[in-house]
Specification:
Chain B: Belongs to the complex I subunit 1 family. Chain B: It is a multi-pass membrane protein. The complex is a heterotrimer of chains A (about 190), B (about 300) and C (about 400). Chain A has 7 helices and no strands. Chain A is mainly alpha-helical. Chain A has 2 domains: about 90 residues; about 50 residues, no CATH class. In chain A, helix 1 packs antiparallel against helix 2 and helix 2 packs antiparallel against helix 3. Chain A starts with a helix and ends in a 19-residue tail after the last helix. Chain B has about 300 residues and is mainly α. Chain B is built from 12 helices and 2 strands. The longest helix of chain B is centred in the middle third of the chain and has 32 residues. By secondary structure, chain C is mainly α. Chain C folds into 2 domains: about 100 residues, 3-Layer(aba) Sandwich (Rossmann fold), CATH 3.40.50; about 190 residues, Cytochrome-c3 Hydrogenase, chain B (Orthogonal Bundle). Chain C is about 45% helix and about 10% strand. Classes of the chains: A mainly alpha (about 190), B mainly alpha (about 300), C mainly alpha (about 400). At the B-C interface, helix 1, helix 3, helix 6 and helix 12 of B face helix 1, helix 6, helix 7, helix 9 and helix 14 of C.
Chain lengths: ~190, ~300, ~400
């Protein structure tokens, strides 16, 4: 790793940390969300500089979508009206300080205590392929099962949260067409 | 072989993108002139460019209690992301940076408009702007997954995320020919992330321009420019992804790239005025119930072809 | 300051015009729209986008404060003019464009948030929340926060209060619909009619003129009335298509409307009108986007005093625009008929009933149709009924037409 890469790495690391600090010091939900997004984009940059461009860019890609959706939800469900009032992001200060301090110490200790393997050979030219193989080779079954579990969770949560079931929509004999929906969808149901 | 071009490509790529966007605006102006019964002259085509001066001269706008920082970052994000996206698009056989994950890079830049538009809607502290910002998120949830599967189809067909290699993998048969669903879904996605024409829902006339409603001056210029830059960038990306890149008889590769880009762009501009705005309450269901399964099936086709090769 | 002068000349070369048609000003509005279309001066959708504020139609003292607030939201350089009659439109626009080139017009004296209204969209887009007492909590910029209430889906969502009107692009100027939104669902809609505050009620509505004149004993040919009715319905169609975001066909509708009013012969108009009717009427996309919106059974419409196309359509938004299209095609075939207008022939929006113009009943239907709809559908529903602001303003004076 040459000097330029090191400098970029350090800069991105500092920016990511600064974004993280902003998350707890800004007092608007929108700013907090986008401070977090900025931080995560820097993390994506860090991963890219470390030689995993696919993971790095995908982090940026997914986090932008995720944070925008999160902004919508955070603002919708804040306890003060719409999360629009200035508010503090710090709660249970002493407890959280203890927990986060302990976790930080544990992680840092782990970095130094772990017997890292010595570097053998050259890194592969196409790390994307390696990542794919690692995830989808031997762990294929895990990934597929995980995918289905996630999907089932999302569908299940939505079904549980909806207070209208199919009998409300299609009538007691499920023969009501079109469905009794407050607003019709786009595929003729 | 696609190679990384030298330093001069760094200013050249945005300049080419801008040229394409100006041509698109001029083409749209000519179509508008035809619809309105005005003479179709060169003057009519370039008149919309007066907007640039008009907006630069306009007074910036102040609103009570805006979030200026977020508003400005949102407004700037849209055109900047469009310019960054084009870095991986080869022009002929040269790209500014032929990244090994070019397709993902393009996708990531395109997704940045989600953040940009939501912020641009949030910033001014006005109801209709905010509704416009939310509308883009709804639209994004509808167009993004089919678009991603379209990109995945092309990448799978070429077994590479490198845009140059995807273009090369189409020697003989364009992906647009044997992945038509992916191609169409991709073009619809281009219109959607440039929020123009039928996908102009976030800036709808029914909510008084939505995201654009409170912008004037440079803010408005940047957002409007961002839309047309994105349209051009999407059209340029369609060429290596689905239309064989710079390959073609007779002409040099860069000429084929330019020609194909302009043809795709012309098609997109023509569609702009031909359809009403697709409202999210109808389009989301269509996207999830019809387009997502269709585009997954489409992605299966190159996967099976590649496995049997 | 050559740079400034050059920039201002560029602004004046293609200014965006915020066109405000006052009730009773349909003729002036049509002249202005035609002029802007032919000169390629874009219609501004919001004050933020506009360089020129052009008020078309008779001066309405009741609307003056609202017009002034619009003016405050225009960013400099800017110019404004009032044109009461169609003939005054051209000179007024020219004067504004000259004004724009004068550097002195770039004054910072008017900030665009002059009245502290956070929503400088067309006047009335006030997105302020319900006033609730927050126990002296400090409000950002002194703006009140939203209160909550139960909603359609059993949630407690914030209530957002938005007013549509009195000025809005492609909106019948005058009436204001005050909406209470939760999410994008309209929970409550209240119609605020301009009523007497507009002044004397104005002349006979432009679109209903042939019928009113026939009622006063003048001899009006069927062709003459059919021409006016077809133009009125094309005007309504243009507004609906514009709200639906179909730029191409909206422009076509307005072009055909202007051609009709210019007195183009039926033979010249017929192919264009038929092609337009075919494209719009058979458009699957438009049908897909509008089906099921604002259902209005014929019986319910008639019970509310609505006659004309809205009652005959007996259905949702597509049923109404298809009725308009069929009417336009039929009327364009009758342009040459010179027989006197029969008494049972209805005007563009139906026959006057109970001493009031048909638009009054149309406007009264709006709250019922809007409640429960989504905001995205609201403008389409209003545009598909399209109450005529002229008729609403004239309502106060009563109807002279025969019942």
């Amino acid at each position: 790793m040459d000097t330029v890469q090191l400098a970029v790495l350090a800069a991105l690391g500092v920016l990511a940390l600064a974004g993280g600090v902003l998350v707890f010091t800004c007092n608007s939900m929108a700013r907090v969300t986008f401070a977090l997004l900025g931080s995560l984009c820097c993390v994506g940059g860090v991963v890219t500089v470390l030689g995993l461009p696919y993971l790095g860019v995908v982090i940026v890609l997914m986090m932008v979508m995720e944070m925008v959706v999160m902004a919508v939800f955070m603002i919708a469900y804040m306890m003060n009206p719409a999360g629009l009032m200035p508010m503090s992001m710090l709660h249970n200060k002493r407890g959280s300080l203890a927990v986060s301090g302990a976790v930080f110490v544990a992680l840092v200790t782990a970095v130094f205590v772990t017997p890292w393997p010595a570097k053998v050979g050259e890194p592969p030219s196409d790390t994307t392929f390696q990542v794919g193989k690692a995830l989808m080779g031997e762990q294929m079954l895990t990934m597929v099962v995980l995918g289905f579990v996630l999907l089932a969770t999302m569908v299940g949560a939505t079904v549980l949260a909806t207070h209208r079931g199919r009998y409300d929509r299609f009538g007691d004999d499920l023969d009501q067409r079109p469905a009794r929906d407050p607003v019709r969808g786009g595929v003729g149901r | 072989m696609t190679e990384t071009a030298s330093w001069w490509s760094l200013p050249a790529a945005p300049a080419l993108l801008l040229t394409g966007a100006v041509l698109a605006v001029a083409g749209d102006a000519l179509l508008a002139a035809r619809d309105a019964g005005r003479p179709r002259t060169v003057a009519a085509a370039v008149r919309p460019l007066l907007e640039v001066v008009r907006l630069l001269a306009a007074q910036p706008r102040r609103m009570p209690a805006p979030d200026r920082l977020l508003w400005r970052s949102g407004v700037v994000t849209v055109p900047v992301a469009a310019v960054l996206s084009v870095l991986v698009v080869p022009f002929g056989h040269r790209a500014v940076a032929d990244l090994s994950v070019g397709v993902v890079w393009f996708n990531a830049m395109e997704v940045l408009t989600w953040a940009g538009l939501w912020l641009a809607g949030w910033g001014p502290n006005a109801a209709f702007s905010l509704i416009g910002g939310y509308r883009f998120v709804a639209q994004g949830l509808a167009y993004e997954l089919p678009l991603m599967f379209a990109l995945i189809s092309a990448a799978t067909g070429a077994q590479s995320l490198r845009v140059g290699e995807i273009a090369e993998a189409q020697q003989g048969l364009w992906f647009a020919v044997w992945m038509p669903v992916a191609f169409v879904v991709y073009l619809a996605g281009v219109l959607a992330f440039s929020f123009l024409g039928p996908f102009g829902y976030p800036v709808g006339r029914d909510i008084a321009s939505g995201v654009l409603g409170e912008t004037s001056g440079v803010d408005r210029l940047l957002l409007q420019a961002g839309r047309w830059l994105w349209l051009t960038s999407g059209a340029a990306m369609a060429v290596p992804l689905f239309l064989g890149g710079g390959a073609g008889p007779g002409l040099p590769a860069w000429a084929w790239s330019a020609l194909k880009t302009l043809l795709v762009l012309a098609l997109l501009v023509w569609v702009l005025r031909r359809l009403p705005v697709l409202r999210a309450d109808r389009y989301v269901e269509l996207a999830w119930v019809v387009l997502v399964p269709l585009s997954i099936l489409q992605a299966l086709v190159p996967a099976l072809v590649v496995l049997n090769r | 300051m050559d740079l400034t002068a050059g920039a201002l000349r560029a602004v004046a070369a293609r200014p965006h015009v915020l066109l405000v048609a006052t009730p009773g000003g349909t003729a002036a509005r049509l002249a202005a729209e035609r002029r802007l279309r032919l000169d390629d001066l874009p219609l501004a959708r919001t004050p933020a986008e506009a360089d020129i504020l052009l008020v078309a139609g008779p001066d309405r003292p009741g609307l003056r404060p609202a017009v002034d607030r619009l003016w405050q939201h225009l960013p400099a350089p800017r110019a404004r003019a009032h044109a009461a009659t169609p003939d005054a439109i051209g000179p007024a626009l020219e004067r504004c464009r000259t004004d724009l080139t004068r550097p002195s017009r770039v004054d910072a004296g008017h900030s665009s948030d002059g009245d502290g209204n956070g929503n400088g969209n067309h006047e009335g887009h006030k997105g302020h929340g319900d006033h609730h007492d927050h126990g002296g909590m400090e409000m950002p910029a002194g703006l009140p926060m939203a209160g909550t209430g139960p909603d359609r889906d059993g949630l407690e969502l914030d209530q957002l209060h938005i007013a549509l009107g009195p000025f809005l692009i492609d909106w019948p100027t005058g009436p204001t619909v005050r909406l209470t939104l939760q999410g994008d669902v309209i929970q409550r809609a209240e119609l605020e009619e301009p009523g007497e505050q507009l002044g004397d009620g104005g002349d006979v509505p432009f679109w209903a003129e042939p019928w009113a004149r026939a009622a006063e004993g003048e001899r009006i040919g069927i062709g003459q009335a059919a021409r006016r009715r077809a133009a009125a319905q094309l005007d309504s169609l243009g507004r609906l298509l514009a709200v639906a975001g179909w730029a191409g066909e909206a422009t076509t509708a307005r072009r055909l409307r202007d051609d009709l009013l210019d007195g183009a012969p039926g033979a010249a108009l017929r192919p264009g009108v038929r092609r337009f009717a075919r494209r719009v009427g058979r458009s699957r996309t438009l049908y897909w986007l509008t089906r099921g919106l604002g259902p209005l059974a014929g019986s319910r419409a008639r019970a509310a005093g609505v006659g004309g196309p809205a009652a005959r359509a007996d259905g949702d938004v597509p049923a109404r625009y298809r009725t308009w299209l069929a009417d336009v095609v039929r009327d364009v075939d009758r342009l040459a008929e010179t027989a006197p207008l029969p008494a049972d022939e209805e005007g563009p929006r139906g026959r006057p009933a109970g001493g009031e113009w048909p638009s009054a009943a149309l406007a009264r239907l709006l709250p019922d149709l809007l409640e429960g709809a989504e905001l995205a559908a609201a403008r389409l529903i209003v545009a598909s009924l399209d109450p005529d602001p002229d008729e609403l303003a004239a309502a106060a004076r009563g109807v002279t037409a025969r019942d």
